[in-house]
Amino acid sequence: MMGFHQPPHTFVGQVDLKVSDLERSLQFYQEIIGFQILKKVDKKALLTADGITPLLSIEQPEDSTPKQARTTGLYHFAILLPDRSDLAAVLQHLLQTGYPLQGASDHLVSEALYLADPDGNGIEIYSDRNPTTWEWKNGEVTMTTEALDVRGLLAEGRGKQWVRLPEATLMGHIHLHVSELQKTEEFYCKGLGFDVVTRYGGQALFISTGGYHHHIGLNTWAGIGAPKPAENSVGLKWFTLMLPSENARRKVIKQLQGIGALVEEKDGSYFTEDPSGNRIKLMS
Description:
- It contains 5 helices and 19 strands.
- The protein has helices spanning 22-33, 84-97, 150-156, 182-191, 246-258; strands at residues 11-18, 36-41, 44-48, 54-59, 73-81, 103-106, 110-116, 122-128, 136-137, 140-141, 146-147, 170-177, 195-200, 204-208, 216-219, 235-242, 263-266, 269-273, 279-283.
- The strands form 3 sheets. Strands 11-6-7-8-5-12-15-14-13 form a 9-stranded mixed sheet. An 8-stranded mixed sheet has the order 2-3-4-1-16-19-18-17, covered by helices on one side.
- A hairpin with a 3-residue loop joins strand 13 and strand 14.
- The radius of gyration is 18 Å and the shape is globular.
């Protein structure tokens, strides 16, 4: 069931966020979302679900500025739970804490809850339906946005107490605001090697490897030509792409350079930037 987030696929490993108040964010990410602290140094913390694997990094820049509207960057990062009953427990917990939800949707391939952290960084918490039930037509997967069957979901979770995120929780996908889709598609598909699995009108693109419903979502809902946010504004710092091998990473770097994308090495880490200024760390 969870094979889409391991080799030979390319998937999102870790998301690095900038926040305005580290302590406030830590309280939120532990008490509301259910992460554990893996490591904390100065104004930066690494968060985990299993006590070993970092999934989220949050840091407080020197003089952070609030999130600006209509810029590129994070739309949401998405936490994938191992089981539908885990999603039910999360929903029950959110209803009990009274933390405001922004939405609850059935996407056919998955069921999802939406909320935002105290800085307005978007978060999706979801569980996948069995991939054998996903409907594919001409290489595209069918996804819709319908109201979530909240009653049915809560019934599923009866008796399952929320403690924290389950150990098998993964970073399921990331969804980004971009300034246009043509160059963006070239960058992610020709450069990074993703496949397009769904197009939403001319406004959004969903891409994956290995037949997942999406490892990355890309949309122009912040406006065509949206500028990138200020360096110290809260939001996405970068996200990490896990490539299946060192050879795969070398190949991707070559492909990126072939389309004129910049790849830089910094202390043994490789970084690239999509045409909208979203930074990506390439790991193998």
